């Protein structure tokens, strides 16, 4: 075994004299990475109902209040913190259920570094841990009227438990049948611009004269429901997502001809003549970029709708029967309130029975973090979890592997 077991013990020092005005409840935890101590815990202010973060810089002796991105975990009955790889902290929520027990606070990942540069402040980002390897999100792009929405609706109707739609924000007016929060989050430009400044968006773009964007939360909500996220966004948005840390599959939908595209836009009857002309002008540039920019993994022609839909399903590995392709959820865990956390290389041992090291330990849960992927913005996937009876079981085969 490579490394001596290092016990990570919660560090609940109450009453940090930080001069920032944020008081903790006294059940916070702390983790040290480099010269910085990250203090994480439920703030005393009941109205926030969220887990807060403060940083103590050992060198300057100053407290820093970072910009906190991503959905924050709701305060639980206590937290354990385990630093991982110098760039993130694993947070285990005590007494929580399997869908809410593992979180990551990213402190120096690529996403955090980029956000620090663009926001000009200290930044940390929350990312919830998802057990197992859920499928990559699917980005569907293409000119207005090509049939993206139609294909996505067909997919979600045939596989309701498998796909979830990322509900975008837009400043355009809603159409007759569109519902706020379902088709889009309809919003004002000034509100959306402020939210963009606050780092709430994974991507955004000016499309046909309006602002459209995918919030980090829109993608996270779908991941939390255990479904594969589908994004319907324009080519500029697809380029931004491609450049982000969200790993996705990128599909571009092409019309059979510009004339057919125009027919479809007109027959949909949702745009004025002026808007149709604008969308058709933009379509030309989008087609060129879609085919040649290297953003997209696949191009599909939507001539015959059924054939195009079959092609889409094939790309997504769904050409078998729906029943055969329903996914199974990985086994969950429920964490008791009292537990002891130990990190040994890429394994986090959660001892729920608090047995002595070397002796048989009941209720030992192993979190294997060796295959993590994804992360903020969005969820951290690839977390493997299993229960064992003893420390030796937890490291069976470890010598051969390490
Ligand atoms: N293969 C097809 N053949 C004929 N009509 C189609 C086909 N695919 C979609 N349509 C029709 O074309 C119109 C535009 O489709 P849809 O609204 O899905 O496009 P879209 O790409 O989502 O557009 P937007 O980007 O503006 O949201 C709709 O009326 C739809 O019924
Ligand atoms: N970059 C983004 N583009 C988006 C988003 N949501 C939708 N879209 C694209 O906008 C056009 C027009 O849509 P419409 O509903 O007004 O017809 C279309 O190409 C969509 O793909 C987004 O969040 N980001």
TrEMBL record:
It comes from the Eukaryota. Pfam families: Guanylate_kin. NCBIfam families: guanyl_kin. Belongs to the guanylate kinase family. One of its GO terms (molecular function) is GMP kinase activity. InterPro entries: Gal_Oxase/kelch_b-propeller, GK/Ca_channel_bsu, Guanylate_kin-like_dom, Guanylate_kinase, Guanylate_kinase_CS, P-loop_NTPase. Residues 135-317 form the Guanylate kinase-like domain. Its EC number is 2.7.4.8. Gene3D superfamilies: Guanylate Kinase phosphate binding domain (3.30.63.10), P-loop containing nucleotide triphosphate hydrolases (3.40.50.300). SUPFAM superfamilies: Galactose oxidase, central domain (SSF50965), P-loop containing nucleoside triphosphate hydrolases (SSF52540). Keywords: ATP-binding, Kinase, Nucleotide-binding, Transferase. One of its GO terms (cellular component) is cytosol. CDD domains: GMPK. It catalyses: GMP + ATP = GDP + ADP. It comes from Cephalotus follicularis. This is Guanylate kinase 1.
